[in-house]
Amino acid sequence: MVTTKIISPAQGAYTYPLLIKSLLLSGARYAPDQEIVYADKLRYSYRTLNDRIKQLANALTKAGVKAGDTVALLDWDSHRYLECFFAVPMIGAVLHTVNIRLSAEQILYTMNHAEDDLVLVHDDFLPLIEQIQDQLTTVKSYIQLSDVGAPSAALPVLGEYESLLTDAEPHFDFPDFDENSVATIFYTTGTTGNPKGVYFTHRQLVLHTLNAVGTLGVYQGLPLLRSDDVYMPITPMFHVHAWGVPYVATLMGIKQVYPGRYEPNSLVRLYREEKVSFSHCVPTILQMILQCDEATDTDFSGWKMLLGGSALTHGLAAQATARGMRVHSGYGMSETCPLLCLTHLTEAELEQPAPAQVAARIKTGVAVPMVDLKIIDASGNEAPQDGEALGEIVVRAPWLTQGYLKEPEQGAQLWENGWMHTGDIGSIDALGVVEIKDRIKDVIKTGGEWISSLELESLISEHPAVTSVAVVGIPDLQWGERPVALVVCAVVEGITPEKLVAHLHQYVESGRINKWAIPKQIRIVTEIPKTSVGKINKRLIREQELSRQALDIC
After folding, report:
1. How far is the C-alpha of 46 from the C-alpha of 271, rounded, in Å?
2. Model-wide pTM > 0.90
């Protein structure tokens, strides 16, 4: 035990708790007239935002919500979502951001597991909630969220959101309380079992926000978000607080644009009309944006795009770069709040022409300040940072979830030996650049060797006809596993699996991959299965390929 010196504070000294309410102070000071925009439906100033947050706090309190209660939210990305990010935890309640893309059965499970007390539900999700209403065991009341009018609902609603805010006072004295109080909860889905509840405290969210403000803005070569930027999330707000950036943008007082339901053409129009300069999304959404009709004649120069959630392939990054976008890779997990690493180009890399920078931009990046990150081998020993040695990435940071709600055994597994285990295999070079090679569950083990499905995907994506690709391993009696590739092509005519195999042979000749890494089976498809947050669903692909294999045998 280390003995340290502690001095008692002076009588009357204020011990400042790290609470979400403090993130609201600066935006209205520095940019009171800056805009918050909701698609083509509404816009208002930061002054109004702060008033509406207080009105919402009064409306929730009148509805019976008290400290420790849980408020569920089912909505598209909107100004209402931003207001709930603040008002709900600021009164001491917990905000449950419901994943609206889960099945009705899974949504029912998460709402009962979180013990939701009040539900705010958009009109589009009324049929879903009405379907499971009788099975919600803790919900006491509902508030309806409407964009146009307020259609009648079978639910016992207390009222419509805007009407309730109009009737509420724009004054509320938000209390101080323990900064370690839980502020938010959402559910992450795995390959087996029920979704797991991931929760974060006020302290964790404030620290993550302060760190992201610095990381996104201060480094040369990484000015993703500055005071003159216009921010539009393209990562659902139900998923890890839209990567925490709405908190960052609000603290900075920058213009924010919330697009509502994601539709690629609408997103591109908002980009043009609102002069959006910074967004973040998963690679599949970026692909949809680049391929939509509105993108055909749109100049994307100046749109800084942070990609995460799954690996950014060389081919997709090159497409975006050729259209003028400045792409960066980020790394994190639902359990990490999520920021762990960001692309950080060296001065020499920044001097190269944009196409030559792509290889550096798709790497996982460097661990951001206050993140302790290393790779360990199967025995738990730290592997060398030589860019070659592989191991599981384990991390520590002050904003990582401390466990899973009501799942102590799974939480202990996550935090084995005092480090959070990411389940990702990667390497770290001498400059600290992390490169994810694969998920432990997705790496392909063939003939005693490991094949990175992510590397194969990136190499296949460099073929000019390929728009998206997924590689998985399926059981093989001779080799243990063998890679199978699903490929979507922009132009199908003339593109054959054999031509894609020939494309991969150039990387065998250059030494990038071994000959046995080339998939023996490449299938050209029209669509690749996705998860509820837009990632490639490799678990489902494996299941489908195994079923296909069984049918072939029969």
Report:
1. 21
2. no
Q: Is the backbone peptide bond immediately before 338 cis, with ω within 30 degrees of 0?
A: yes
Burial class (CB in 10 A: 0-12, 13-18, 19+), 439: middle
- As a whole number of angstroms, the distance between CA 60 and CA 76 comes to 20
Measured distance CA(324)–CA(299) in Å, rounded = 7
Report the CATH number of the 442-553 domain: 3.30.300.30
User: Residue ranges of the alpha helices (H) in 32-97?
Assistant: 46-62, 79-90
Q: What span, in angstroms and rounded, lies between the C-alpha atoms of 464 and 466?
A: 6
- For residues 21 and 175, what is the distance between their CA atoms, to the nearest angstrom? 9
Summarize the confidence of residues 159-174 as an average pLDDT.
97
Cα dist from 114 to 263, 465, 527, whole Å: 30, 46, 34
Measured CA to CA, the distance from residue 355 to residue 194 in angstroms comes to 43
CA angle 485, 486, 491 (to 5 degrees): 120
Main-chain dihedrals φ then ψ at residue 425, nearest 5 degrees = -100, 130
| Whether the Cβ atoms of residue 533 and residue 237 lie closer than 8 Å to each other | no
Write out the two tokens for 530: 């996705």
DSSP label at 525? -
pLDDT in tens, 148-159: 887 888 899 999
Q: How confident is the model at residue 510 (pLDDT cuts 50, 70, 90)?
A: confident
Kindly list the catalytic residues: 188, 335, 445, 450
Phi then psi for residue 367, to 5 deg, are -60, 135
